[in-house]
Amino acid sequence: MTDTTDGLETRILAVYDSLTPKQQMLARFILDNRYFASFASASELGAKVDASAATVIRFCQTLGYDGLPGLQGAIRAELPSYLTAVERLEHRLTALPASTDLPRHVFAIDVQNIQRTASAIDQAIFEAAVRQLAAAREIVVVATGVTAAAGFFLAYSLEVIGLRARAVLDGGVAQAVTLTHLGAEDVVVGLGVWRYVRSTLDALHQAKEQGTTVIAITDSIVSPLARHADYAFEVATEGAMHSLSMTGVMSLINALVAAASLVDPSRTSRALQRIDQQFVARELLIS
Amino acid sequence: MTDTTDGLETRILAVYDSLTPKQQMLARFILDNRYFASFASASELGAKVDASAATVIRFCQTLGYDGLPGLQGAIRAELPSYLTAVERLEHRLTALPASTDLPRHVFAIDVQNIQRTASAIDQAIFEAAVRQLAAAREIVVVATGVTAAAGFFLAYSLEVIGLRARAVLDGGVAQAVTLTHLGAEDVVVGLGVWRYVRSTLDALHQAKEQGTTVIAITDSIVSPLARHADYAFEVATEGAMHSLSMTGVMSLINALVAAASLVDPSRTSRALQRIDQQFVARELLIS
Amino acid sequence: MTDTTDGLETRILAVYDSLTPKQQMLARFILDNRYFASFASASELGAKVDASAATVIRFCQTLGYDGLPGLQGAIRAELPSYLTAVERLEHRLTALPASTDLPRHVFAIDVQNIQRTASAIDQAIFEAAVRQLAAAREIVVVATGVTAAAGFFLAYSLEVIGLRARAVLDGGVAQAVTLTHLGAEDVVVGLGVWRYVRSTLDALHQAKEQGTTVIAITDSIVSPLARHADYAFEVATEGAMHSLSMTGVMSLINALVAAASLVDPSRTSRALQRIDQQFVARELLIS
Amino acid sequence: MTDTTDGLETRILAVYDSLTPKQQMLARFILDNRYFASFASASELGAKVDASAATVIRFCQTLGYDGLPGLQGAIRAELPSYLTAVERLEHRLTALPASTDLPRHVFAIDVQNIQRTASAIDQAIFEAAVRQLAAAREIVVVATGVTAAAGFFLAYSLEVIGLRARAVLDGGVAQAVTLTHLGAEDVVVGLGVWRYVRSTLDALHQAKEQGTTVIAITDSIVSPLARHADYAFEVATEGAMHSLSMTGVMSLINALVAAASLVDPSRTSRALQRIDQQFVARELLIS
Fold this sequence. Notes:
Four copies of one chain form a homotetramer. Helix content of chain A is about 60%, strand content about 10%. By secondary structure, the first copy, chain A, is an alpha/beta fold. Chain A has two domains: about 10-80, Winged helix-like DNA-binding domain superfamily/Winged helix DNA-binding domain (Arc Repressor Mutant, subunit A); about 110-280, Rossmann fold. Chain A is elongated. At the A-B interface, helix 7, helix 8, helix 10, helix 12 and helix 14 of A face helix 7, helix 8, helix 10, helix 12 and helix 14 of B. Chains A, B, C, D: It comes from Caldilinea aerophila.
């Protein structure tokens, strides 16, 4: 039996040997994929190890939780937050050998972030999302906090290839006002990673209510953003120290914009040429 | 003899066999490194192939140019611009086999961008720049166009770890006014890639005049930005289609911020904790 | 006796003749100053007609309310909101004679807004606030929605005269992060008018907790913003149609900046000269 | 005869008594309206005093100038700039009697700014501009420096009444990119006052080239902005100290938005209601 004050790992260890092979697979999967497990439904979780939803729920009860919501609440309470990021920072400060080459460590993690983001791409969703972007009357990109810069980059890059796009980066009153104009011909792209900012989720709600297509770029296909989206992309955001990395997100944006530029190449050409003419005429660039 | 209307490659081919081995090395180096060659001094260029500045200048004259400036003008006139980006786009559209997996192609290029950016890091410059950031009274990040989002990310990330930072992203009047306040205790970080935007270079000029430390993040250590900087970083920005990639820049920023967070870990911890308290108190995050 | 579903005016009319002269004064004052009455304490209200707090509370009970909070809830439920603005719009559409000169009507109201704002200035508070601004290490102006532009103008105008100032205009995550750096040497200016935006009030809370001086520019000295401020200014914001006017706010800002420019005239001169040199050197202006 | 190093006033005084009555009227008009005179054509100037263009040119020659351009260059060299604003500041510092009530002085000037702005309104132009705004597919407001905040307010206020509007406030690369999308169905509003910022004029040029309707809000109907506009408004911007006042501009914006809200009252109502619903649903306001 497990103690109700124990953490998830302790509870699993206490009963692990008595679990069925399927339950052991489930236990390992949950420990390795806590973000996913913290938001997935019982059937989504079960599908990962070829088990039924009922098996998942019994597993939760075996661990002493009040069903799946109980287990998920326990995971969320333990998941890294800014505060545990502080702890990670302090831990790493003492743990890092003096000889560690920090920049190279960061670059290595970011190569992994790109590779993991690449491997999570679903080609059919990618193509459908690109078609939506290329056909939109107007695109509004909603992002804030650590994802704000990536959202800004996406909106700018879409404008450069001839699409009407703008970024809304700080939630609040201005976001609500700007989104009010959107309808079925428009697209909202929402960016957000753990710990998800409420105002971005509000934006996706508002867009859905108004019949606007929603594309989410987020860290899990079961994140709250993904659940409110017509098309969702999962990005890897592992960081070296306290914070998350947006490198995988930026590379995904490169792919989306490159593909969108090919949907109507003559529109793309015209936009690039007109922009270039302005840059030259106004002497904005160093000759 | 060369025809004065010929391009650089034609001129080099016309005389290549009659060149000395050292001149041939120089010719190959210039053809492979046109960005560098278009801004480097004669002695910088010569150093790459172990030749003197005088050798470089004679080489230019052999090709029929009026010294190094003549050769550099010719390179710049041929270098890719937004307009040739249009041509690249059109070329790639016809050249891309239908089966090409565009997103994976983009991700592969971005992995290379990170690896090249990593290999260009000079550890001593990295550490010195990090010390400057960590000790600054105020940090102003100046960027615009394709680098604006990365500049925004840098300023936000520095604020999160407890440094006073802000981004100025559109040149013009507001940039001039904000920079007016900076002095010797402050740091300006300028981001810019080919084709360099004049207003960002103006910002670095203004900063230098006021005695402010300048860090440049740019695509060549001989770019105009690097020449106005106390510390310069070279980033790889190869793009799959018409545009440049900021993935290498973003990964470099991750490295800089991670290192800066370790300079004064207790300051970093306090900042993260204070921010977390506000996020919780104001219910900005989804629980 | 009054009916509990009646509005404030109906209740007052029903009992008016039976009220004491002092209570009648109080009734008239409340009807003429509903914004004030909806937030004031019993003693603040009483002071306006030279009555005690107990008199105010008895008056509320006479009207059938559960004390002052009951009366205030009733006022707020009746106060103009965006929705009643819709109604005003519709009413005015039908009520406006075809010959009405709308622009001249708007200008006339704005002249009144300035005159009312001027008459509400307390010279001692004005001078103290100006001294705080001129002595601040950094000034952060917080505003959003209809007041955002005025906040932007204030921050820019303060920068022009040599003070370190920035505007935070959209609440949310970025606001919380930026305010984290402020301490006792800094100043926050918060702008907000009915219906007060929660995030601006959060900013003033955060500033107070961190020991930062708070100046409020708001539509009532008993507004929630004024209650969290060390110095508060009351501005008139009457609009011709559905919306509020910021003309009075802008004129107050002109006065604050003009006065702040005189606190240290040589600093002001130096800042203006340095900005002018940049404008000329960078050819930002039309000659 | 006049000395070529003399200023305009000295030259006029030197010959005043020998001028014809018409030339004396012209001299007085020019001294009283230097902004206008510095940009007007000979026939525009002549029309003000019922004289021919030829009379204006002969007058300039009488003063020793090389025609009208010579006189205009002289005026511009003498017109207030930021530098002479420094001088005004220093002058006023010594000239202001200690007892001067600075805030009330500012408010009085701003009442005048509104009254002068009101008296300069041409009803037909006002109505035509409002129709253009109300019918636009998209409205882009371009402004920077001292007018940036007013431009921001205009864009926000237009969004609130259900029009698609955005502000571009810093010139540069982002402005050029965003304007590229505009065509004949769109409207650009440009704001600018002496000393006119080049990038805002560039924006109006770009808009005209693309067939976009241009509305200018500026300090003179002969300013460079007005000359590039389909509809131009003249605003009074007198300031108490070194800087210009935007109070007249803000009041004009109130008038434009109020009138635009009446063009399609049901659209306005729907927009206000939708925004209100979002504010309530997201708990953005203090209840």
